[in-house]
Structures are given as structure tokens and as C-alpha cells.
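Example S7 (C-alpha cells).
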């Protein structure tokens, strides 16, 4: 078979395919904007407006990383912005450093602060994370206002010099603004490229569904810490250029209100795109200037304008432009491509069980959801776990997968004790997983969803994005959805979403595949197709499937061995023929006493 996306495609063609049509006029405008400051009719005031917009935009682009790409709330961006500004202000005025040295100091300091804030996400998220970032912002304000010996307090720092390039001091506002524009466009280009990298896909997976990302193999804490660190570093860069541009800073420039302003800029333009963040920044800075003709009521008009834009454009201006383009653009036909057959065989000579569980218990207070379960799963088999509703099946699977830490007991995968390992670490050891309630990344395409699964650490495919893409396409082809590779999964029917989730798990080259009620919600035709798919998986050499399912016909069709639990305890185990005639199993399902069922 011919691999898809080979080296024959030129780099220019790949680059062109990455640019949505609405981006083209924006890119052309960005190419022209650096020359605008050299138009001598612009006043010093107008140049200051441009300078403020370019430096603020760098900080807002940092919010695009942490909020837009990773989905983490950050209300301390002005503090990171201020750290970069004070590093340049104090470094050049008080410590005798050059601008560039002070810039490096500021970026390191803001990045370190951002890393510390990111580490709090191991325990906190949502509104609690927002409260932590607010506290960090208020702490920065308090220190800068009251530690006069260090920060010079409310008086601020004046006389901050401009940087020099090759011995030439950029004293002219037009020259300095050109430097700020170059930095801004470099950051925009880098963030435009980021979503199509491994890190970018991990970020988007965390944003869309953090639990699914972790189980798929994404180290979610590390991704969030990187996002906060990168966001803070960009804010530090913006703050450094702001301080040198305006030659004066004070704590009032970096308070909580400025953080809210940055957040509004990101949401207004569209936080999930660097172009949207840039548009929002420019608009929010220019809008007050445009409304000044209203005199006394212009601030009210300004606030009302922002509210109306955000209410009627929840995805921001950029999201509105992209949605409009999708409505008028002709849909692209999926090109017929040939992909390699999905390799599922697992080479091994170890006869020991791939999964071994000893006296596993999971108690929630007085509720014993799993109560002393022992089981062994032989390599290369389909092992089913069944039981009535509420018997503890999914809880058992969540413990095996690392989502829950067991109350007691031990779990071994290939003779390694993994009881204390996180879900992403178990995924790195060859564990794949689907969920009873489908957990995909809705705003990502089917291909992107499966590529996230393909890039886990255990996968032998490590040759770059082209190989990951090929593996993902092979997995989609295996489940029959190759023609839907470019479709966002939120637009797929339910049955197809179920197949995308299976393809995502298969793309990671699993040794042990957990399937949690894969037939749930499927119609009879889709169930029949699922049985065929499971039989194909069963034929793969060395792949082990641990299956939870209520459909007994499906279980009989594919399972080699069945374990039955009820009220958290194992009550039977054996072949399908043995288990489904077991008196205690019949009693558990029919509600009869065991002796009567017998």
C-alpha cells in the first residue's frame, strides 16, 4: 500500500494547506503594517497607540496558549507582564544591565512564576484555579506597591532606556515600533504553527477532555505547566518591550484590571487563534479612540460595544470569520488515498498473564464498590467482565486504568506493579481505553483525535508527524472511517464517534485494550458491525482485550473467558458456556436465590 502524506509533497504545498482562506488577507495586512509607522503623517500619539497594541498583543497571545489552546483560566497575566517590565526597568536603571540582558532575566523570572502557578493545577481546576491566579495577581500588586526599597513603590521607575541593535540605539519611535512589530509577528507565526505539533495536539486534547487526554497517554499536568510557563514567558516579553517603549512604569500599569483587560482582548478576538488574539487586542485599544466623539458617554458606549460583541460572538471575531467562510466555501471532497494496513500484532514470548489483579478493593466511604477481586487475563485473549448494573464493573476498570487509586490490592501489567502509576504512565506501557460514555475531543477532527492516541510513548512510531499521521489514517481505515478523517467529531453520528474512540485507542499500538461497553447506544446494524470489528481485533496476534459489556450475545460471540462480579465481588469465572449457566450468575441477573436458580 502507498503511504499517505509522503515526502513527495512540497513544503510549500503543506504550508499552503495549513492556511485557511480568511487568513490570507490578514497575512497580507500584517506584511504591510510594519511600514505604517514610517508614514510621517502619524502623530506621536498614534505611534504610542500602535506601540501599546503591539506590546499588549504579545501578552494576550500568551493567553491564547493557556486559555485558548489548553483551556486553563489565567487571571494573573498582568502580573507576568509586570515582571518582564520591572526586570527591564530595574535592570537597566538600577542594576546597569543592558536591555537584552534584562529581557532574559525578565523572561526567566516570569516563566518561573508561571511554572509555579501551573503546578497548582495538579490539585485545582476551573473556578478554583481562577481564584489562585487572582490571588497571585493581587500578591504581585501588593509587593510592587509596598516594597518601596525594591520596586520604588507607587512612584514607579522612570528613565528606562531603549534597546540598541548593532550599536544603534532605537530612540526613534518608528524604529522601535518596527522592532516590536517583528517580535509580535514572530510570536504569531510560532503560535500559528504550535497546534499542529505534538505539544499543540496535547494542549487541545487537555482543553477538550482532560480525563480522556490523560488516559490516552497525555501527561496532562506537564502540558498545563508548559502552557502556563509559555504564557508567562510571552507576557514577560511583552512587558519588557512595553517598559522600554514608554520609558516609565508603575504598579498601576500591571494591576488586576489589566489582567481582566487582557482576558477580554483574548475572548473578544477569539482565544483559540493567535490571529484572533491580535485582532481583539487592536480592537479593544482602538475602540475607545473611535468612540471619543461621544465625549462624556464614550466609556459607557465602549463597555456596551464590548458586551454586545461578546454576547453575539461567543467564539470571538475570528471564530465568526471562520464560521462565515465555512458557510460560503465549497466543501472539499475527501481524496481517495491508500494507507498501510494497521499493524496490531504484538511480538512477545512471555507466557505469563498480561494483567494480574490481587485482592483489589475500592471503597467509597462505606460503599464497597470493588471488594477483594482477583483475576488474571491471559495474553492474546478476549476477557469479558460482566455483572448486573451497579455491580462495580466500570469502577473496576477505572481502578485498572489508574483513574482511581485502589483502597488496597495490587495490579500487575506484564509482571510490573503499576498500582501507583498514573493513567498516562499505564498508557505508556501499552494500555488503551475507551469509555462507556464516549470521551472524544469534540472540536478536533477525527484524524487529530486519533493522532493524539498515536503519539503516546510506547508507540514504536516515533519518526515524526508524517508517521503519526500515517498511523492515525491506518487506524481510521481499520474501523472504516478513512473518508471522515477531516470531519470534526462533534459533527459525526454517535456510532461513528464510537468507532473514532476505538481507532484512537488502536493507534497507540496497545498491548492491552480496555473496552467499556462499546455497544452502548448502538443500533442493531451498528452492533453487528462492532462484532465484526471485535473479531478482527481478536485475530491480531498478541493483542489482549478486556471487555465490559451487557449484550450477552456479543459477549458469547467474541469472549474467550468471562469474569462475573456482583456487589463488587467475583462470583464466577470461566468460558462463556460455563459462566452463562452458572447458578450464581443466573441468580445475579434474574434476582433469584442461588439454590432456586440451580
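Recovered sequence:
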Amino acid at each position: 500500500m502507498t503511504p499517505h502524506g509522503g515526502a513527495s509533497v512540497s513544503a510549500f504545498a503543506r504550508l499552503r494547506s495549513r492556511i485557511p482562506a480568511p487568513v490570507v488577507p490578514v497575512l497580507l495586512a500584517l506584511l504591510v503594517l510594519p511600514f505604517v509607522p514610517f508614514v510621517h503623517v502619524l502623530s506621536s500619539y498614534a505611534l504610542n497607540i500602535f506601540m501599546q497594541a503591539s506590546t499588549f498583543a504579545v501578552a494576550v497571545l500568551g493567553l491564547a496558549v493557556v486559555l485558548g489552546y489548553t483551556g486553563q483560566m489565567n487571571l494573573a497575566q498582568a502580573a507576568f507582564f509586570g515582571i518582564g517590565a520591572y526586570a527591564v526597568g530595574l535592570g537597566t536603571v538600577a542594576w546597569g544591565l543592558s536591555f537584552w540582558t534584562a529581557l532574559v532575566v525578565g523572561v526567566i523570572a516570569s516563566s518561573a512564576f508561571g511554572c509555579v502557578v501551573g503546578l497548582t493545577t495538579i490539585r485545582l481546576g476551573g473556578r478554583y484555579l481562577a481564584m489562585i491566579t487572582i490571588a497571585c495577581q493581587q500578591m504581585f500588586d501588593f509587593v510592587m506597591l509596598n516594597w518601596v526599597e525594591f520596586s520604588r513603590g507607587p512612584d514607579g521607575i522612570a528613565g528606562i532606556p531603549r534597546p540598541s541593535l548593532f550599536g544603534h540605539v532605537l530612540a526613534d519611535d518608528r524604529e522601535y515600533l518596527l522592532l516590536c512589530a517583528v517580535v509580535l509577528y514572530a510570536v504569531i507565526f510560532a503560535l500559528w504553527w504550535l497546534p499542529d505539533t505534538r505539544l499543540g495536539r496535547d494542549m487541545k486534547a487537555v482543553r477538550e477532555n482532560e480525563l480522556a487526554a490523560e488516559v490516552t497517554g497525555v501527561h496532562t499536568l506537564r502540558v498545563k505547566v508548559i502552557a502556563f510557563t509559555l504564557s508567562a514567558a510571552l507576557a514577560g516579553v511583552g512587558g519588557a518591550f512595553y517598559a522600554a517603549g514608554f520609558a516609565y512604569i508603575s504598579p498601576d500599569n500591571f494591576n488586576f484590571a489589566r489582567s481582566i483587560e487582557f482576558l477580554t482582548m483574548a475572548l473578544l478576538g477569539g482565544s483559540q487563534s493567535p490571529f484572533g488574539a491580535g485582532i481583539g487586542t487592536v480592537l479593544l485599544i482602538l475602540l475607545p479612540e473611535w468612540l471619543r466623539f461621544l465625549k462624556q458617554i464614550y466609556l459607557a458606549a465602549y463597555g456596551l460595544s464590548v458586551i454586545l460583541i461578546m454576547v453575539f460572538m461567543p467564539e470571538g471575531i475570528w471564530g465568526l470569520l471562520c464560521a462565515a467562510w465555512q458557510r460560503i466555501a465549497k466543501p472539499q471532497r475527501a481524496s481517495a488515498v491508500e494507507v498501510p494496513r494497521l499493524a496490531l500484532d504484538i511480538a512477545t514470548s512471555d507466557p505469563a498473564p498480561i494483567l494480574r489483579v490481587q485482592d483489589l478493593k475500592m471503597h467509597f466511604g462505606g460503599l464497597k464498590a470493588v471488594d477483594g477481586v482477583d483475576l488474571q487475563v491471559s495474553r492474546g485473549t478476549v476477557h469479558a467482565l460482566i455483572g448486573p448494573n451497579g455491580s462495580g464493573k466500570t469502577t473496576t476498570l477505572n481502578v485498572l486504568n489508574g483513574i482511581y487509586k485502589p483502597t488496597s490490592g495490587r495490579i500487575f501489567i506484564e509482571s510490573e506493579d503499576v498500582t501507583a502509576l498514573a493513567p498516562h504512565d499505564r498508557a505508556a506501557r501499552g494500555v488503551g481505553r475507551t469509555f462507556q460514555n464516549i470521551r472524544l475531543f469534540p472540536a478536533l477532527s477525527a484524524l487529530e483525535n486519533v493522532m493524539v492516541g498515536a503519539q503516546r510513548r510506547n508507540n514504536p512510531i516515533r519518526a515524526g508527524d508524517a508517521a503519526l499521521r500515517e498511523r492515525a489514517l491506518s487506524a481510521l481505515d481499520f474501523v472504516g472511517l478513512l473518508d471522515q478523517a477531516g470531519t470534526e467529531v462533534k459533527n459525526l453520528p454517535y456510532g461513528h464517534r464510537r468507532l473514532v474512540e476505538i481507532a484512537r485507542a488502536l493507534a497507540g499500538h496497545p498491548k492491552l485494550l480496555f473496552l467499556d461497553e462499546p455497544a452502548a447506544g448502538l443500533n442493531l446494524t451498528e452492533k453487528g458491525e462492532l462484532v465484526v470489528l471485535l473479531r478482527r481485533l481478536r485475530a491480531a496476534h498478541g493483542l489482549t482485550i478486556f471487555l465490559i459489556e451487557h449484550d450477552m450475545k456479543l459477549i458469547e460471540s467474541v469472549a474467550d473467558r468471562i469474569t462475573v462480579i456482583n456487589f463488587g465481588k467475583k462470583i464466577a469465572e470461566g468460558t462463556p458456556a460455563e459462566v452463562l449457566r452458572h447458578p450464581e450468575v443466573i441468580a445475579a441477573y434474574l434476582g433469584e436465590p442461588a439454590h432456586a436458580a440451580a
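Notes on this example. The chain has two domains: 42-328, 355-597.
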